Structures are given as C-alpha cells and as structure tokens.
Amino acid sequence: MNYLATTALILSFGIPGYAQHISANMRLSGTAAASAVDLGTGAPVSEYTLAGKGALGKFTLRVVSSGTTSPQQSTTCSGPNKLYFPILTGAAVFRFHDESLLNAAVTGGSDCIDLSAGHAQCIRIFQITGGTGRFKDASSNNLALTMVVTPVVPANPVFFFVTGEITGTVFKVAADNQSQDAAQ
After folding, report:
1. What is the predicted pLDDT for the residue at 103?
2. Of 32, 63, 74, 140, which has the most beta carbons under 10 Å away?
3. Above pLDDT 70, what percent of the chain?
C-alpha cells in the first residue's frame, strides 16, 4: 500500500531527477527581419530573435520559418487590406538560463498581415525534437507561438518588433529546481 501511495505522489508532483510534463506558458518579446538562411523552399525566410520567461525559466529563442510565396484564402484572416500566408516549414532553438537547449521543428502556422492596422498576427506551431540538459528527452506536438509583429519604421517595413506568448505542454522535462526561481 505504501508503494502505491509513493508512486501516486511521484506521478502527481514529480521529484527532482524525474521526467515531468510542464505547461509552457511563456511571455516573450524581441525582433524580426528577413533571413539569409535557406530552408530550401524557394520562399523568403523570416527570422525571429526573442527572449522571455515562463514556467520553464528564462530563455532566448531563435526561429527561422518560411511560408507560401503568395497570399492564400483564409476564413480566419479575411477582409479588406488583409493578407494571409500559411507557414510551411522552419526550425527553432530555445536556450534556457541553465544552458539547456530545446530544439523544435516548425510544423505549421500562419501570418495574417493587416495593412490597415500596420501589424501582423503571426503563429508558429512547434514540434519539440529533444534538446540538451534537462530537455534531452523532451517532446511535444502542441507548442504554439503567437506574436504581434509591427514594423519599427512603418514606411520601411524591413525590421520589426515582436511581442507574444507560447502556450502548450512540454513532456519528459527533467526536474530543475532553479527554473521556478528564474521564472519569477
């Protein structure tokens, strides 16, 4: 009976050194611009340099992604002066305060550019493909990066400032006693 109670506590709360799942609600900000990275799609590549903090601790994030070359029809991004570009591919690397890395593939998303409002709503969907340190065995298929992207100089939209959040769950994260302290 004690074995069952101990097992239930470990599964419910996790203990240091054991893998756990963490709701990855994180706020971030940074910049974006066109990238020289070639993802092999023949389409332009966007690059985001971001930093933030949340349930997994303080982090930096670099994302490169590419979508379609021309606007597409959309039910979620429609109306006058709106352009919709589905995102097809990309990659991302999170670097955390403890120097652990979390690797991700961009598996989808979209850019909804609102020319009248002067900004875009951009979404990137990540599939976690492991990492280093406490993320060595990490996985997830449901991390979503949602951003508002605004040109720094509206008359010359080549460099942008970004605010946003990441939501979803990361599985098989090794316990890190410092991550809660760093997130505060």
Report:
1. 98
2. 63
3. 85
